[in-house]
Specification:
By secondary structure, the protein is of the alpha/beta class. It contains 10 helices and 6 strands; from the N terminus they run E-H-H-E-E-H-E-H-E-H-E-H-H-H-H-H. A 6-stranded mixed β-sheet has the order 2-3-1-4-5-6, sandwiched between helices. Strand 4, helix 4 and strand 5 form a beta-alpha-beta unit. Helix 8 (about 190-200) runs antiparallel to helix 10.
């Protein structure tokens, strides 16, 4: 299971974001009493063909008293209201004070994207801020939909939590691009089984000087090299097929 912390100014759409993760649109959210809404939401998302659990935690906006426990997570969500000109500045303050030197990946989410977008009262736009700090571009989200809100944003969040470096290489949710094909293949049950057997064959015991002269050892090494060559060729075919 992966853990995501959600920050945002009061009224920015944090609660709607958590409820959207549970498949509830704005209409269904209005039927829930305020005291019954939780600061946590947990559900699943499919990443590279595998089902992953993601737990979202909404944190109160008093950024002067954030503990290490509140910042201990796999990914941070910074939510701002596109219709509130003062909403984005709060996200920048959180980022600069607590996250700028952190290795935890961050995602900026433009909530209430169904409303008219207002220019934010900050020295740079949200997109420019993301580019400066090497973050993915702002991701639009709204729970004001006829059906359940789209889960694409949550798939992206889980993808970044699973592989933090993926934010610089792949932010899609299609599972059909080159990066996704390679990840699907490398994470497949077949490859995991072959890799386990390979480790068992080659590294089942300590290698000594006598082993280096043993034909059995070199047979194991040859089998390992063959398996690696087959896997490399399969990845190459997958790359060609995706183009």
């Amino acid at each position: 299971m992966y853990f995501a912390v959600v920050f945002g100014l009061t009224g920015s759409g944090k609660t709607g974001f958590l409820q959207g993760f549970l498949g509830r649109n704005l209409v269904s959210q209005r039927t829930i009493r305020e005291e019954h809404k939780s600061y946590y939401a947990i559900s699943t998302a499919h990443v590279y063909g595998q089902e992953k659990y993601l737990l979202l935690h909404e944190v109160f906006p008093d950024f002067d008293f954030l503990s290490e426990t509140e910042l201990s997570c796999d990914i941070v969500c910074l939510i701002y209201d596109v219709s509130n000109p003062c909403s984005f500045e709060y996200c920048t303050r959180i980022f600069k004070q607590y996250l700028m030197d952190s290795k935890t990946p961050c995602m900026l989410i433009a909530a209430k994207s169904d409303l008219p977008e207002t220019k934010q009262q900050y020295c740079m736009t949200p997109l420019e801020f993301c580019r400066k700090h090497k973050m993915p571009p702002p991701q639009s989200f709204t729970c004001n939909t006829a059906a359940a809100p789209s889960k694409d944003i949550f798939i992206k969040l889980t993808t970044m939590a699973v592989n933090p470096h993926a934010r610089l290489r792949c932010m899609c949710t299609c599972n059909r691009c080159t990066f996704c094909l390679c990840q699907n293949f490398l994470n497949s049950e077949l490859v995991q089984t072959v890799r386990t057997k390979l480790y068992t064959v080659v590294f089942s015991r300590h290698i000594t000087h006598a082993d280096l002269k043993s034909s059995t050892f070199w047979l194991r090494a040859s089998v390992g090299a063959t398996v690696c060559a087959v896997l490399g060729f399969a990845i190459y075919r997958a790359l060609l097929r995706s183009r």
